[in-house]
Design goal:
Elements: H1 13-22, H2 52-66, E1 72-76, H3 78-88, E2 93-103, H4 122-130, H5 139-148, H6 153-159, E3 163-165, E4 177-179, H7 183-195, H8 199-203, E5 207-216, H9 225-233, E6 237-241, H10 248-251, H11 253-260, H12 270-276
Parallel strand pairs: 1-2, 2-5, 5-6
Antiparallel strand pairs: 3-4
Helix pairs in contact: 2-3, 4-7, 5-6
Length: 280
Amino acid sequence: MLHGILGNRKNMASFAKMLVEGFPSWQVLLVDLRCHGESASLPTRPDGPHGVAQAGSDVLALLQRLRLFPRVLIGHSFGGKVVMSMVQQFPKRLPRPVQVWVLDSLPGQVRTGGGTEGGDHPGAVINFLRSIPMPVANRSEVIDMVVRAGFSINVARWIVTNLRPVRSGTAYGSGPLTWTFDLDGIAELYNSYENVHLWDLVQRPPEGLSLDFVKAERSTFRWGGPDEAAIKGAGHRVHLLPNSGHWVHSDNPLGLYDILAPSFGRSSDLKQWRSSAVLH
């Protein structure tokens, strides 16, 4: 399960927990993509260029080291293009049948502005964050700067989850902070995400691939029109997730769970578990 741009593997943790509690025989692997989270500070972190294909190759190499090949790949936003790129790197036949879920992302050029949440354009956020001198004294300082720059408070609060103490071992809330991620590398990744086209995968999928898309009702992307028609025309499904903006796994996790559930089988005690579940 892969996160989006400026995120990290923790973003998907609550939804991953929901899946494994609903389907206990399954395991979920959460990954920090290159330039994000703990991957950004690895001694063996890859040099550029940074792009969708390179991020996909990283994950495939990790799976090979772990001797795993998942039956389901789930990617949100940028991560959606990464999982598509992963299967595209097997042009004719996959090692085993794979279900790919692309969460609120399209195969082609990224066009924002289709929903009510289009003000927090990721490219603009990235450019602004690159202008903030590091280190900073505290998270509140960054929240104030991001909001004053015209971005939403929700994005500001999410962004500061990517701050860490400059000195390792420093207690939470004390000492100067810096980014966990590599913003220059992320700028390259986002440029690739905006411009990489994976329509060839949609139109000529490798043998063994099932490809489904989830469209948020209040998506920041311009769904509908020729793109959605082309996906459906190629024999793939587009599922509408109601009551959700771009952050599908946090805006409507139960609705997303219902859409994805057939890929995992049906849990006999799902209703009982749901009635007692508390989502964080």
